[in-house]
């Protein structure tokens, strides 16, 4: 009788072991998001609300940052928009009602980083702006 009970227990143990699913493989960790550039972080903190994540701006309120001469053209003029703000100017022939406040609280490096980011994103392919160029424009202010 003990042998019979032993064999029943053994066969039950074997059956359970055979029906157990293999341990689930650990799912691969999602790829880490690429590190953001300093200029992108500054853009997200100071510019995104008005100029949008894709640089499109808001019609009749805030101008786009894509493909405009204001962004891709004269560096000093663009630097001065950040340092002094902008109001009442037409951008690419369109009027925008919101005033751009001065962001002169940003450091020269931060302004250079964010403007370089803008000039090389949103379809723009303009050259970088250096902290030295910002410093020079700030001194002429």
From TrEMBL:
It comes from the Bacteria. Pfam families: Cytochrom_C. Transmembrane segments: none annotated. GO terms for molecular function: electron transfer activity; heme binding; metal ion binding. Keywords: Heme, Iron, Metal-binding, Signal. Residues 1-17 form the signal peptide. The keyword Metal-binding applies. This is Cytochrome c.
